[in-house]
Amino acid sequence: MWQAEQVSRPSAPQRQRPPAGYDQPTTAGQPVPQGAQRGRWRSFVDRYGWRAYALPALAAITVLAVFTTNSPKVRAAIGGNAERITGHSATSSTPPNAASDGQLKVDTPGAGSVSTALPALALPPGPAYTQLGRGSYTTVPGHSAVIGHGRLYKFSIEVENGITGVDPKAFAAVVMSALSDQRSWAGSAAGGNQVAVQRVDSGAVDFHLSLVSAMTVRNLCGYSLPVETSCYDGGDSRVVLNVARWVRGAKAYASDLATYRIYAVNHEVGHALGHNHAHQCLKDGLAPVMMQQTIGDKTASGQICQANPWPFPKGATDAPGAEQAGDGPDLDFFQRNSH
Predict the structure, then answer these.
(1) Residue 142 and residue 138: Cα distance in Å, rounded?
(2) 34-48 vs 51-69: helix axis angle to the nearest 10?
(3) CA distances (Å), 313 to each of 224, 231, 300, in order?
(4) CA distance 320 to 263
(5) Considering only CA atoms, which of 159, 161, 186, 184 is closest in space to residue 171?
(6) How far from 279 is each of 324, 325, 332, CA to CA, in Å?
(7) Least confident piece of the model among 143-157, 183-197, 240-254, 307-321
(8) Spatial distance between the Cα atoms of 270 and 279, rounded to a whole number of angstroms
(9) Which of 13, 136, 184, 194 has the most crowded CB, counting CB atoms within 10 A?
């Protein structure tokens, strides 16, 4: 078999008679006599040496490659669907890392170098959860009045098909309890009430709010750091709440699972509303809701913020807190909270 690369140039190849039918050129539509064909072949070999044998092989390999790449199975295997370039298929065996484009904000800081889950970031003990759903979603029926005043964001509440152990209606009730509270993004505590939200179960939405299995989270948002988190997938306008965290919580909230769930909703919806991560405590020592509290609550100065699930907690005068865009601050936050 001819190889595309050689360590050293080979010695002059032995001349071989081409197989019958290998070269059938024509002149004015008439076949060239067989002897003339052999003469031309010998001249070609004398001129180009071993390359004469390489060129036909290259042509054959090229044709085979084009044919193979254009087959449906191969196109599917290499991600031929350009509209889903970030890899939203729940059946992908090697989920790609999520792109960092300013629209996709995740609780894991870009292409990190950490290769093992760290004890401080591990899931608390608790019930089993669904590892892999079906990659499709069912909207939980229900709608609400407009909450707040300002730019209106319509959203649907969904649960990935295949998730077990979580009541969809109970999940939706927690979501609505969080977003309807006066301390949430559209509540009266927000001061100017610059945004409003409304739950719908049909028609166009500004974002989907979805409970998603752990492996589907990797497909939607990447898995550059092996820590169970939730995220916001800007490409799909989807708030992604990881069922692993929904049923287990995070160490910053100890055994207070109900409050952690409120934090998770408000944090990821904050991304859908355009907010970035925050890395400093509020003046009263509370963690801003946009701090990655699932990962930790330690600032660069070493201060430990108090867990807080609300964008505008009662009494806070500087909420929701200073925010920083980009992977750099997120990675620094991860590194100081991973020990």
Answers:
(1) 12
(2) 100
(3) 32, 22, 23
(4) 13
(5) 159
(6) 8, 11, 9
(7) 183-197
(8) 15
(9) 184
Residue with tokens 């590892």: 131
pTM of the model: 0.67
Mode of pairing for the β-strands spanning 30-31 and 151-160: unpaired
Non-local CB neighbours of 216 within 8 Å, separated by 6+ positions? 90, 132, 133, 135, 160
Distance CA 147, CA 17 (A): 84
Q: Residue 238 in contact with residue 120, Cβ under 8 Å?
A: no
- pLDDT of res. 120: 65
Six-digit token string for 97: 């890392």
Distance of alpha carbon 102 from alpha carbon 255, whole angstroms: 33
**What single-letter amino acid sits at 229?**
T
Whether pLDDT at 339 is above 80 = no
164: buried, middle or exposed (CB in 10 Å: 19+, 13-18, 0-12)? exposed
Handedness of CA 131, 136, 140, 144 (dihedral sign): positive
Q: Is 145 exposed, middle or buried (0-12, 13-18, 19+ CB in 10 A)?
A: exposed
Q: How many CA atoms lie within 13 A of 249 on its CB side?
A: 17
Count other Cβ atoms within 10 Å, centred on residue 2: 13
Question: How many helices, marked H, and strands, marked E, lie in the chain?
Answer: 8, 10
- Residue entry with tokens 């991860």: 334
Q: Please name which of 216, 191, 151, 166 lies closest in space to residue 312, comparing C-alpha atoms.
A: 191
